[in-house]
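Thread: "does anyone have the structure for this chain?"

Original post by V.I.:
We have the sequence but no experimental structure in hand. Need at least a predicted one for the grant figures.
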Amino acid sequence: MPRPLINRTTTSTGLSGPTTRSTAGAGGRMRTARRSDSYLRAIRALDGSGRIGAVEVGKLVDDIRREFHEKYCAVPIGIVGKCHLGPPFEVHTLATDGGIIEHYRTGQELPGGLEKARTMASSDAYLAIEVYADRMVCVRPDGSTVALGSD
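Reply from O.Q.:
Generated one for you, tokens below.
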């Protein structure tokens, strides 16, 4: 007879680590909480960074950083999203430490450990992939998230 799933005392992690949540430092706040509407707007606006000025890009980056510092205690190494500028571009990145936004062509390698997020970022299922040192958090267009352990 199967064991009940309610009130379990152990945590099942599977092959890739926990897939539903992750604590993020002091206070144990969740990295995988639903992302705010302002964060989603800022992520969507990044794709137009080739057409907006440096001041506007800087404001978007500041909004994204503020979201992480105020709510999640952990800031990702970078964020990867599908690029809608058209061929030859496939994905774009945001390096949260330096605020650099760059669009990458198909086959062009992403720097700093962000390459592992390319396949998921190219999917319409996710708005962005947040890459952390120990995992990736996939952000859906509605703001909900899925955490994936990484190697």
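V.I.: this helps a lot. The longest strand covers residues 89-95.
O.Q.: and The two ends are 35 Å apart (CA to CA).
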